[in-house]
Structure formats: C-alpha cells, structure tokens
Amino acid sequence: MEYKEMLKRALSKVRKTDETERFEVPAPEIFIQGNQTVIKNFGSIASALRRDQKHLLKFMTKELAAPGYCDGQRAFFQRVVSKSFVAKKVDNYINEFVKCRECKKPDTKLVKEGRILILKCEACGARKSVKQV
Length: 133
Hints:
This protein has a four-stranded antiparallel sheet, with helices on one face. The N and C termini lie far apart (58 Å). It has helices at 3-13, 19-22, 42-49, 53-64, 83-97; strands at 30-33, 36-39, 68-71, 74-77, 108-113, 116-121, 127-130. With 133 residues, the chain is of the alpha+beta class.
C-alpha cells in the first residue's frame, strides 16, 4: 500500500469533531418573579463552565448592575432582565474567564498567584492574567 492511500484510509476512519459539540453550556432558564429575575439552572451553568458559582455570580451582579444571591442551584437578581441579555452576559463570561485566548479551547482553570488571577490552559499550557471581578 502506498503512503497516500494509507493516509487517506486513516483520515477516513478519524471521527471529525466540532469544538462546540464538546463544549455545550445550558441556555439560561429564566423566569420573572415580581421585580426579580431568577435563573433556575445557574448551578448547572457554573458546573458546565467548571467555575465556582460565587465567581460567576459576582460577575453577573456587576454585569447586570443588580444585587443578586444564590440559593442552591438558582440565582436571584433584583432586576427584571431578558433571557437574551442574560445569555449575552454568560457568553461574555465564557470569553473572558473560560476560553483560552491562544487555542480557544475551554480546558482552562483559574489560578490565583498572589493578588493576580491567572487563566491557565490545560490543553496548550498558555497563561494569561485576567481582570478581577
């Protein structure tokens, strides 16, 4: 068998994957309760991102400009906001604190070194400082 034929055969057997297939964040499930916005699946969003709920909550309270708190798997914010606005803010969090800036993969973790928060990629080894929330 010639090299090119073997290469074609090997490539045909390799499963093609899309990065979005592996990294899926649940869409925020929101309902309005009086003048509060409740995200029912806040805990599952944080666990899908592999981040602490407190860190995500702190980011969301600043971005939504509203006080908020967690109660188990749910998050409450003292403001009425739309589902699309919350989804946009979650995407902003992903781009800032989850995805690697070099390889764009979500295999990262936040490491605190002294006073600096570092986004460390477990896939490519890149390190980048991120802003404090």
